[in-house]
Amino acid sequence: MEIRLFYAPVTCSLAPYITLTEAGAEFEVTPLNFRKGQNKTPEYLRLNPKHKVPVLVVDGRPLTENVAIQMWIARHFPEARLLPADEWDELRAIAILSWCASGFHPFLSRINNPKRVCDLPGAEESVIRQSVAMLDENFGIAEEMLAGREYFFDHFTAADAHFFWCYRRARLFELDLSAFPACAAHFERMQGRESVRKLLAFEKEVKDRFARAA
């Protein structure tokens, strides 16, 4: 089985990189330089007309969207326990994955590029303020879920990988996250995992390579 992950630095494509590594999967990574439009080439658009990452290509077949990709990885590498064994908890983990994709990611994207949401003069500050408010609400919910726990469940799952990206992206925007100590502890715990250390080293390598090619 040939597995290839299309990835871009800083993006949520780090989540399947982490879980594939946790699973011990053999996979290749194709980094995309968004600043050079490599996500909008005809070749890439044939894989994903949404021109986003991640894309997981398995034996030539592309799969998009983090929730679907994480479910595929969990199903094909069950020994990694990337989703809980209990059926109800498995569904709860999928709900967290979906929440990361729909409850966190859109507001992080609006902070990153508020003009894509509203191009009215002077609207940027309002877009960012409202986005931060929604993120605070969601991080507050995550804080309650993680209070007194190492991970969302009794062991690491794919939900932790995706939430790690959400929290990390918010940190990169220098948002005030001081009200969420359990989320911060989860982030630090994740940074100690070998899969995350490998991801961060790979990200630095890719970013340095892109910078040299600029």
User: Ranges with pLDDT <50 over ≥5 residues?
Assistant: none
CATH topology (level 3) name of the largest domain: Glutathione S-transferase Yfyf (Class Pi), Chain A, domain 2
* Biggest sheet record: 4 strands, mixed
The CATH architecture of the largest domain can be named as Up-down Bundle
Number of strands: 4
Number of discrete helical segments: 8
Which whole number gives the mean pLDDT? Answer: 97
What topology, given as strand order, has the largest sheet?
A: 2-1-3-4
Radius of gyration: 17 Å
Spell the H/E element sequence. EHEHEEHHHHHH
Share of helical residues: 55-70%
- Beta content comes to 5-15%
| Overall form | globular
Compute the separation of the termini in Å. 35 Å
Structural class: alpha+beta
What does it look like?
The chain has 214 residues and is of the alpha+beta class. The protein folds into 2 domains: 3-80 and 195-213, 3-Layer(aba) Sandwich (Glutaredoxin); 87-193, Glutathione S-transferase Yfyf (Class Pi), Chain A, domain 2 (Up-down Bundle), CATH 1.20.1050.10. Helices cover 57% and strands 8% of the residues. It has 8 helices and 4 strands; from the N terminus they run βαβαββαααααα. The protein has helices at residues 14-22, 42-47, 66-76, 87-112, 124-146, 158-172, 181-191, 194-213; strands at 3-7, 28-31, 55-58, 61-64. The protein has a 4-stranded mixed beta sheet, covered by helices on one side. Helix 1 (14-22) packs parallel to helix 3 and helix 1 crosses helix 8. The chain is globular and about 50 Å long. The termini are far apart.
